[in-house]
């Protein structure tokens, strides 16, 4: 536990902050060496290097919280979907998907058929050989 020996915790935390500072500085230097017309070149502010050791903590906590929220919503969705499938026996979802897929497919086929007729013209029934 980090509370058992705070000296090691603080030293490790300081080393992580230094590592983040070095990574941000190195990335800034690599970006600064790119040509002006390079599409990979970004417009970073120089002060962002000094904020990196502080902000990585918040980004880490935010990504962990977003991951936990995704897991909770996924479990909630799976549970509710399973209950809905068991309680509602009528397959309304498949009927609705069939109607929507058929409607979209018919519109696409009609548009593609129109494009083929425009590009290639009407087919000749008795071609000359």
Give a structural overview.
With 129 residues, the protein is an all-alpha fold. It has a domain at 6-89. The protein has helices at 6-33, 48-87, 92-120. The longest helix has 40 residues, at 48-87.
Secondary-structure content class: mainly alpha
Tell me the strand percentage band.
under 5%
What does the overall shape look like? flat
Give the proportion of residues in helices. over 70%
Tell me about the largest β-sheet.
Answer: none
Spans of at least 5 consecutive residues whose pLDDT stays below 50 are none
Q: What is the arithmetic mean of pLDDT?
A: 85
Q: How is this structure best summarized?
A:
The chain is mainly alpha-helical and 129 residues long. It has three helices and no strands.
Features:
129 residues, mainly alpha
Topology:
Elements: H1 6-33, H2 48-87, H3 92-120
